[in-house]
Predict the 3D structure of the following.
Amino acid sequence: MTTADLAPASVGDTAVHHTACTLDCPDSCSLEVEVEHGRVAKVRAAPPEVAHPLVGGFICSKVGRISRHLYGEDRLLHPAARTGAKGDGDFRRISWSDALDLIVERMVEAKTTFGGESVLPLSYGGSNGLLTQDTADAIVFRRFGASQLARTVCAAPSTAAALGLYGKMAGVALEDYEYAQLAIVWGANPSSTGIHLVPILRAARARGGRLVVVDPRRTPLAKQADLHVQPRPGTDLCLALALHRELFRREDADLEFLAEHATGVDELRRRAEPWTFERAADVTGIPEQDIVRFYDLYRESSPAVIRCGWGVERNRNGGSAVAAILALPAVAGKFKVRAGGYTMSNSAAFRNVGWREPSPGTRIVNMNHVGRVLTDADAIQGPPIQVLFVYNANPLATLPNQELVRRGLAREDLFTVVFDQVLTDTARYADLVLPATTFLEHDDLAMGYGAMVLHDTKPVARPVGEARSNLRVFGELAARLGLPRDDDPRTEAEWRRAVLGRRRQRRLADEGLVLPETGRRPIQFVDVFPHAADGKVHLCPPSLDAESARGIYAFHPERGSEKYPLALISPSVPQTVSSTFGQLRRGHIPLEMHPDDAAARNLGPSAAERGEASSKAEGHGEDGMGRNTELARVFGALGGDKPRVRVFNEYGEVRCRVRLNPDLKPGVVLLPKGVWARSTESGTNACALAPDTLTDLGAGACFNDARVEVEALPD
């Protein structure tokens, strides 16, 4: 490919291209990319005449600095085979032809000896579009008869809850939040991901709207909120049920709407009945007066909208919690007006998009149990895993029970292929690594799940080294394995048509992006309705009731342990997309801890010392720099005064520094999501402390059920 093939708009000696971001973020930004000699030089928001409206003239810093990822020292440039011990990351260069031959040889050998299910594809792919996942790769693994993967590490409980209650119904357009009298951001932090919602919420407040943030930490958005509600991790369900109870008890529920549009009303009322404000306050740790104020704000406000994030689902009660939150607009009668209702994933705005290879009926492996499956032959029925093909994922940095995953990857009898853009922590355990293209280097279709938009994205830069796209690599593997059929798509154009249909393909060719048939700002229960046979909300769907132990909305208390009293959370951060870009973070990442918890472990100043520091800081008067420096000194935000600590539980440990953070709820500690081995002293991250237990719905991950203790280490 040459730069001429990219059909750029020319500005001086620089080629300018318009494309879109496919990274795992709700916003799906329209981009303008400057390319010099085939290499990305600058990335910025596309101009208004070609951008979709949510972009608002700016993009996140991650994508703005993506050239560091594209051309950094960790970028994989060619196929390579392992030469050293697993985990060392020592490889020798080989050709693509030899690499593909080796993969085919090992897959066929495993199938001949153990059966096709001894091959396991491991991918997630939130940062992939519609062409780069579940297309040519599905042809390879499904037709080969490999084990199937349940991609449950994220969004599985939320998806189960949303589908059970509403089917695939589009939510409130993020642009419409400006017109909400009340916006509730529950378990989401748009300052880290989905940043374009932040100025919209500010505009809403400027119009007189109010903001409630529900999160165990005081996020940047929570600091701007009219009310910040801080539940203990795993207790959001109790808070939502308490709101339902009061809506019914005080006759604030919209019974007329419910009679017309809902089923399971009486059962939801019955299950919410035990959750008084007093009981909810006791279990969640939220002051009762805050729950009362939350209720009053929601009851009296219209339009009122809930932005439900994925932080809610990451615990043993996660699916029921999401369901209870999404049921609130129905019970409170918040639908049928612009900016009224809820938003979770807006991927439902597009229907009949995608390509499906039929399931071969082989066994399904839950990705949260990969550590178990790779280390214990009795953990699954059927043959042991002999070939692991990792793509669009970095499981060692992102799956629970990290040390068990590491033990599995270290097996000498396991042949592991890692197909990625950079040498990840997982790739260091591979027998074979393959260089993958980024979204700026290959064709794709980007469908927003916040923004209601579908982009046609074309390559804007030359692939680095010998990097190849998913479509090309899996297409070649399918051919070598003898799997293609005459009617299979083969070219990018054929795949576009197969995924989109001819009508959408023509629109994309003409316009570059497509909005949903309902428009980009549908009103729930006016323009869009539950995608169910009866068109109704199912508040207690029988399928979910049967799936959850003791039924949907049943609260599963924490299994208390005095040995591990602190709740660990691992939220997303502005620097990474899950673990993507984690290699670019310099220095070690500290554990964040509330000052009270640190003082109790002799890791920070006492309350009296902090009070004295605050008084000194106030003494600086208008000298903001002096005041902030004094507070920073005491809270451990400056250089060398962060103690070394060991964070541990029965699953593993992380050794790092500690930083005091008064914005956390006491009893809660924080290690960011997706941290790479190089960023902690121990080479482990929060996943080393996360249980591989499963959520009540959707068999999802329970990262926020990690309970830990922290102790000092000698300097």
Remarks:
- Residues 570 and 672 are 5 Å apart (CA to CA).
- DSSP finds 22 helices and 28 strands in the chain.
- The mean pLDDT is 92.
